[in-house]
Amino acid sequence: MVINMNEKEIKRKKTAAKVARARRKSRRKRAVMAGRIAAALFLAAVIGGGGTFIYHSMPEMKIARRLEAADEYVETKDYEEAIASCEEALQIDSNSVKAYRAMAGVYLTKEDREAAEQVLYRGWETTQDESLLQEYCVHLLNDAVADINAGNCTLQTLERCVLALEQDPANSDSYALLDACYERLFEGGETDLFCSELEDGEGSGFDKYLELMSRMLAVYQANPVEELRGEIIKFMVPHNDVVWLETERMQDYLNLLLQAAAIGDDGKTADLAACLEKAVWARDTFAEAFRIFESGEFEPVKDFMQSEVYISIRDQFIAGTMEYWDGKTYIPVSRERIKLIRTDDRWKFSFADFDEYEKARGVIKVWGAKQEDAGVQRICISYEPAPLNSQEYPHYNYEFVYLYSNVKINGVDVPQMNYRFETRVTTKEGTVSELIGDWGGEHEWSMEY
Prior knowledge:
The protein is of the alpha+beta class. It has 15 helices and 13 strands. It has helices at residues 2-57, 59-75, 79-92, 97-109, 113-127, 130-149, 155-167, 172-185, 205-222, 226-236, 250-262, 270-285, 287-295, 301-305, 308-319, and strands at residues 187-191, 239-246, 330-333, 337-343, 346-351, 362-367, 372-373, 376-377, 379-385, 395-409, 412-427, 430-437, 445-448. The protein is elongated, with a radius of gyration of 43 Å.
């Protein structure tokens, strides 16, 4: 009996424990459900009551509000505030393509196309968004078209084409506009484009030309497109009748032509390169003569005019066999500018005299007319310094001649080779000359007239 009672008790206790576990499980389920309901109610309350805060705190919405404000400022023509609003949008997200495009639009509305292009390019650099890059290139080419149509094509116009080309070497519009720029800049009569100063004051026309050609070469080296090679070679050789160039830039131009030859120019730059090479040689050859003349001690000029190179130059001019160097009765030599002369696609050069470039520091003249005394060809060279203090007067001219002529010896005229040195001084009243015969010789004499 005792055993039976214990079994019943054990059974009852097991049943009670099972019921208790079921009740605890039920309570836990109810607690979890209640928590979920409470959380849902809390979220509903947040969304309903605090949803405005969350909505307006999203970056996209903040940017949208700034750009809406920019539109409103544009309507009232308050462009600075509009730009500031766009900048605020970019401070929120520097990769916002919409903000870059909106700011570019503001600049376009205020007719500042250059700033608009800069914003588009800045946006592309930051975001690498191709649509911004394409829009940037379109604006560049449209600006180039506007310049060309307005008859205002400049090296800055060419630079816009090169900028677009740097972004997309395959853009056919860039090549069409490069051709149009070439026709307007490098075809026709006389041009001093290379000697002109840029409007922005940053260098000369040749500085910009050299930069643009170097950039085109860099694009070609990175992406050797045949059409681009053709454009580079074409731009290396102007089709003007006369091209003025500063003498100190001759070597730079020659080096550029050599770079063109290196990519395969089909010989199109060879003649101009040879002409420039000869011009550099001529400039360097006469550097010593300029040094002598500017020293005021003229005696060493005798050795220069008797030198093999000077006599060779004289003889070639007389015979008409001098390659590339153009001249007739006399040939001027100066240190500031040369003109490159194109005739039937062949090139020659000539240094500027005072009539062609009044700021020349001095002009040497090589006299090449055939003039013989007793069968001996005269040797003649002259020098004109720039007027002192840029005044027209007094003006000096020094002439040195080695010739066969009479020299008075003991009162008797004796024909022999001797030097003559003549100084002409021109003032408002006229010209006075001093002539020294047998200059530096044993029987030196002088006269004024």
